Amino acid sequence: MNSETQYIFSSSINNVDSVKGINNWYFVSGGENGVLELWTSSKKKPVTTLENLHNKKWILSLGNVKNSDLLVSGSVDNYINIYNINLDIPKISIINQIYSPGSINNFDFSKDGSFFISSVGSDQRLGRWVNTGKTKPGIVIYKRSENSK
């Protein structure tokens, strides 16, 4: 891509609140009503879409290990969703959920993918539209199990 070039991608949702690169060609976006979209840099529309995630609450945060098939998403529904990404089809599938009280505002993975960190709080990182209760702001570390890929 030329440094002077701008690409505009057309999402099916009104607000895109989070985006994360999967590799050099694919990325995902999350937004209102629990919609997750998988994109490729060669198309202006998503190649696949998952709807009604996180109890139809907006997706605040996305995380992944670069160049892997693992993706996580967070919202205000007290759960972290874990997905498998198959770029050959392309398809995204939910493989697990982790209970985590509060608003899941951000993710980061270790370089080897053996654990990830999330920031949580009772409010969203960019505003106070939905209060999730008395969750104290903090950081939570999740170690991946030995039998997970």
Which fold name fills CATH's third level, the topology?
Methylamine Dehydrogenase, Chain H
Spatial order of the strands forming the largest sheet: 1-2-3-4
| Main beta sheet | 4 strands, antiparallel
Secondary structure class reads: mainly beta
The CATH superfamily is YVTN repeat-like/Quinoprotein amine dehydrogenase
Distance between the termini: 32 Å
Fraction of residues in β-strands: 35-45%
Q: Could you describe the 3D structure shown?
A:
The protein is an all-beta fold and 149 residues long. The chain is built from no helices and 11 strands. The mean pLDDT is 87. The N and C termini lie far apart (32 Å). 32% of the residues are buried. Helices cover 0% and strands 45% of the residues. It has a single domain (16-143), classed as Methylamine Dehydrogenase, Chain H. The chain has a 4-stranded antiparallel sheet with strand order 1-2-3-4, with no helix packed on it.
Structure keywords:
149 residues, Methylamine Dehydrogenase, Chain H, 0% helix, globular, mainly beta, 4-stranded antiparallel sheet, single chain, 11 strands
